Amino acid sequence: MSRKMKNKVLQNLKIERIATEGKCVGHHEGKVVFVSNVAPGDVVDARVTRGKSSFMEAEAIEIREYSPDRVTPFCAHYGTCGGCKWQHISYELQMSYKRQQVVDQFQRIAKVPLPEIMPIIGARDTRYYRNKLDFTFSNNRWLTREEIDSGVDFERNALGFHVPRRFDKIVDIQHCYLQGSLSNDIRNALRDFALAEQLSFYDIIHQTGLLRNLIIRSTLDEQVMVIVQFGEDDPEGIEKTMQFLKERFPGITSLLYIVNLKKNETFQDLDVHLYAGKDHIVETMEGLRFKIGPKSFYQTNSRQAQRLYEVAREFAGLTGAETVYDLYTGTGTIANFVAKQAKQVIGIEYVAPAIADAKENARQNGLSNTLFYAGDMKEVLNESFVAEHQRPDVVITDPPRAGMHEDVTRTLLALEAAKIVYVSCNPATQARDIALLAEKYEVRRIQPVDMFPQTYHVENVVLLELKEHDDQ
Ligand SMILES: C[S@@+](CC[C@H](N)C(=O)[O-])C[C@H]1O[C@@H](n2cnc3c(N)ncnc32)[C@H](O)[C@@H]1O
Q1: Rounded to whole angstroms, how far apart are CA atoms 471 and 452?
Q2: Ligand 1, pocket-test mutation among 311, 336, 349, most atoms within 8 A of CB
Q3: Which of 266, 326, 339, 374 could covalently link to 355 via disulfide, CB atoms 3.0 to 4.6 Å apart?
Q4: Statement to judge: residues 369 and 436 lie in one domain
């Protein structure tokens, strides 16, 4: 029955509400249908892409009635580019849908008594809020249906973002609303220069081509780092490109390049060459300085990261007497942020270079009450580690999307810290972990924060407090 549904067109499907991961829900003959890139209130014709016994997935092929809540997307690349997928929904509604996702996941998965879930903390900047963008050069530009039908022989080189689920096709970005004007100027000027000079754009299928990838990072006070990845070790082409960027954009703080002959674009294991300026930029938050090198992780929305950390710190309720564990500390940003209000802070993180950055950040910020350790959380966080470093009064945990390993959750139950502040970018795994922690903890506060306007992503902070012991 379900197989037969594939490719079938469901006509006049009423879109009812938002579900997880930005998908919307409708019903066809009593069965749930998940549809992407639509809005609650739309009526659509949708083609089934996947049919299961309990649900279907479908793509809208025609919108018959537009939801009254829709707004006009502001970006010319909306619809083909994978970013900013919620532009057709007003920011007010985006915020309420994000909060609703937290409500749904906690009610469906955590199934524990909950306090009121607070309205989401929205972003002041709903555009131009990212401090890092990663563009790909390609000789295989995505062509629109109209371009293909026109029969015109279009330029096929491109510099931009991947088309969703297409590793080999790149949308040529003319203007991106995620990072400020210098970023747009640098990308467009470099593309024009490369085309004029006939430098080769990367061919992902054959793994050839000089220009491969462009990363632009920036700080709130407008320092800029530019990293160019080259797919061929061609000193003349590299020099030409880097000299162009240096001369055309003297305001670049840190100009770097990498020769990457590997199959993938990751460069943690490659040498980064300094071409001009400094080898890092520095972000400032509440007077604290964070050194950002080409390989360092830093939250991509600096302004909202500060809001997120303020919530975490407030939930921790520190008095200066506490030992705090900052689990999944990355480059130690949260640890640095709370250190002045704690007796000591101990950060643990998987990536060794991030821990080196965390130590350097603490040193630069004159903090002498932090310690950082590199390793897998489930191996590092055990009874002997705790015996060596004092039991935590407060644990702040900020795991990746997959949430915490069950062993880590069980260790936290054994540690019995008075408070756990759980920061998460995935309320579903957070709710799952909290269901386990509920054996000894009560959920006291829940505060969603919007780090990524125009997308369905939501960050959520939860305060858990140890239940009173029942000695009877
Ligand atoms: C969401 S980030 C948190 C970053 C940091 N709290 C911040 O705000 O900048 C999650 C971090 O967990 C680390 N991580 C992932 N798996 C881990 C593991 N098994 N053990 C320790 N750290 C891990 C990642 O390297 C990443 O730095």
Answers
A1: 46
A2: 349
A3: 374
A4: yes
